[in-house]
Amino acid sequence: MFDESIFGDIDLKNASEDPFYKENDTYLCQITEAPITASAKGNRGLNIKYTIQKGDHEGEPIRDYLAIPKKWEVKGYPTESDLDSDTNYDKDLEKRSKRSVGFLKKRLLEFGFANEELDSIQPEDILAVGLLWVTLRHRKSDNQEQVAGVKLAEDSEGTPFD
């Protein structure tokens, strides 16, 4: 055994196992990416990257993924042909898809878009959104980062969400 660690006096026992860990907090951010992406299964989503503008984590990203269900999924059908033939209706799929649409709408409204604009928004419109207060929380089940809320910085003085 060594009398001294090969790492010197670095306290590895108490170090975070996640080198990208950010505390549950509210961060001043700018949206720096907002592409629509598709998974290998063909599921689409809005993949938002917020970049922290101030503080200890300045320059670090916070990611937010918002699923974009297909129109037939929102009606409860697994495929477009199922919708056309009115077969294989799935109430749980409809419920999950409508919930995804609700999350998407909530976030876009938080970005300051008017309800009347929602159906014509393009990724470049999202990139043009001003500074935002982004509240980050970690899921209890797996400690994964989640965006809990967003508010336009111009709409609040000092600390947001008061």
Shape: globular
Total individual domains: 1
Ranges where pLDDT stays below 50 over 5 or more residues in a row are: none
Major sheet summary line: 6 strands, antiparallel
Helical coverage, percent range: 10-25%
The arrangement of helices and strands along the chain is EEEEHHHHEE
Average pLDDT works out at 88
Count all strands and give the number.
6
Based on CA atoms alone, the radius of gyration comes out at 20 Å
User: Helix- and strand-based class?
Assistant: alpha+beta
Per DSSP, what share of the residues sits in E-state strands of 2 or more residues? 25-35%
CA distance, first residue to last residue? 54 Å
- Number of distinct helices: 4
What's the quick description here?
The protein contains four helices and six strands.
Please tell me about this protein's structure.
With 162 residues, this protein is of the alpha+beta class. The protein has one domain. The chain is built from four helices and six strands, in the order ββββααααββ. It has helices at residues 71-74, 80-85, 91-110, 123-127, and strands at 25-33, 36-38, 44-52, 61-68, 132-138, 145-152. Strands 1, 2, 3, 4, 5 and 6 form a six-stranded antiparallel β-sheet that branches. Strand 5 and strand 6 (145-152) form a beta hairpin. The model has no long low-confidence stretch (mean pLDDT 88).
Question: Could you outline the blueprint of secondary structure elements for this entry?
Answer:
Elements: E1 25-33, E2 36-38, E3 44-52, E4 61-68, H1 71-74, H2 80-85, H3 91-110, H4 123-127, E5 132-138, E6 145-152
Antiparallel strand pairs: 1-3, 1-5, 2-3, 3-4, 5-6
